[in-house]
Amino acid sequence: MTGGDEPDSLFGGRLRLFQPARGAHRAGTDAVLLAHLFDPPAGAALCDVGAGTGVVGLAYARRTGARVTLVEREPEMAELVRRNAVLNGVAGAAVVEADVLAPAAARLAAGLVPDSADLVVTNPPFLGTDHRPSPNALRAAAHSLPEGGLAAWIRTCTWLLRPGGRLGLIHRADALPDCLAALAGRFGDVAIRPVHARPGRPAIRILVQGVKGSRAGTSLLPPLILQADDGDPTPESATIHRGLNWD
Question: Using CB atoms within 10 A as the burial measure, which of 55, 92, 163, 224 is most buried?
């Protein structure tokens, strides 16, 4: 079975997580930031697309009481999601093994339901076909999309959302044009928050959210700085990473 014998602790121990062995894709800061993008009301239907080990969706379930569906293509990772749901007491979590890029008929057959989610959160694979893939199959699958894959990924997220539902995603900062192109015509009220490792440095990530079917414009939010110049976490970063806003 995939995963070590001892789970990792995230959010100051508020979430415990079985993860793949070293060398495969493991949850990190990107997932932590995405897990704090929204504050949905208890009972909101939230879908974590490309769930990996389930950290984002399970964090929302634990932190806000959202009803979560976790979508993961790789059977080994889906099994880890199930283990992690049990480990964290999220008994109502639905784990769906489905390929995000598959045709709608295949997604329906896998158990996904269109127009059903109040929120969709996603951390799409960041890399295209112009890089050397990892020799670890799970890591390669988690990091790579084919040509046009981001647009197809966003189309599936749109398909899952109800009208007026909200999408949240994290991506590389230099992927902003591609993200905006994929959202165009589907989402409005788009808000972009750049994420910087330290003050005065270029952004390394973008947190993007939008409303399905909205015609409202785009806004640029204040940046999120992860570390001060001395390397210590900023107060906001420490609150997010340590789960200090879960209580």
Answer: 55
